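Please, is this right?
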Amino acid sequence: MSLRWLFILLPILYVAGNVYISIRGWQALPHLPIGVKVALSFFYWICVLSLFGAFLFRGLDMPATLAQIISRVGTGWLVFTLYMVLALLLFEALRVLNIPIRHSFLISFALVVCVLGYGYYRYQHPDTKVINMVINKDIDTGDTRPFRVVAISDVHLGYGTGKRMLARYVDRINAERPDLVLIGGDLIDNDATPLFQTRMEEELSRVNAPMGIYMVPGNHEYISGIEACERFIARTPITLLRDSVVVLPNGIQIVGRDDRSDKRRQSVRQLTETLDKSRPILLLDHQPYDLALTTQAGVDLQFSGHTHRGQVWPLSWLVDRMFELSYGMKRVGDCVIYVSSGLSLWGPPFRIGTNSEMVVFNLTFNNGK
């Protein structure tokens, strides 16, 4: 199925699912006065349609709080619809099997609310994944302690992940006392406007990493408008790498590959062919495709994001089959590839069956040993 048809089919399924839920809800509350039912239906469909408002109103000059409410309710209603339809269909199946359950609509609603509450808690409490890794190459340093890298991806700053949440993320990063911070794309969500409005550069400027902060664009930087994103990032201490390489004072080489949205971007081989292969090479590439090419290019560590690992079950099953590596670490020879599920998320503020995470790499080098 082409992407075009997918974008046509998904809204149809979303509306159809909500029609089904509203019919079952109307049937489940026969004793309510008609005026109350109409009021509840009106409120329900405002929530349903807020999803379309979240996209249609993007980029409009409106109060940030109102835009955030529309975004959270609209995208959150996607997951509510998914789980409510699944729960109701389960009870339908039990009825067909001659196992009727009384008050199935109310039970479904209560279960879904509990699941979403759990998912919101998981989103608000990201994990910190610590990986100790040895790279058999030399760097220039007299320090024997591991080189500490904090790597994050998919923060999706905007109306969903706002300045207050960003402040919490910055505190978590600084608490790890990193030497280096890497951002694997999708720092910005769908529009750079709220970042300028709320001056989010103030929080990003608090990130403390002596060796610098480097990021690559993700597909959402292109959705937001790459030029506007570049203007915002220029206000921060972040260095944006687009098909470019930076060499740290200790000899570590950081390769930043542009996102697949740029059809003219360079290959991993082109970006690494002139590098010193005796020195460590770290690659940032937002979308984890063609991983075999990374292992052939002399890269020691690739960090990617993009997948969110599906964010909520059962989408995680689908994403696991879409990508060679949808989440976690894979070692091929001397190359390690890590795909993060993301520090924050896109759209619905829930993590169900997946985790938000920040990754800490403690890198130890050979240094002649």
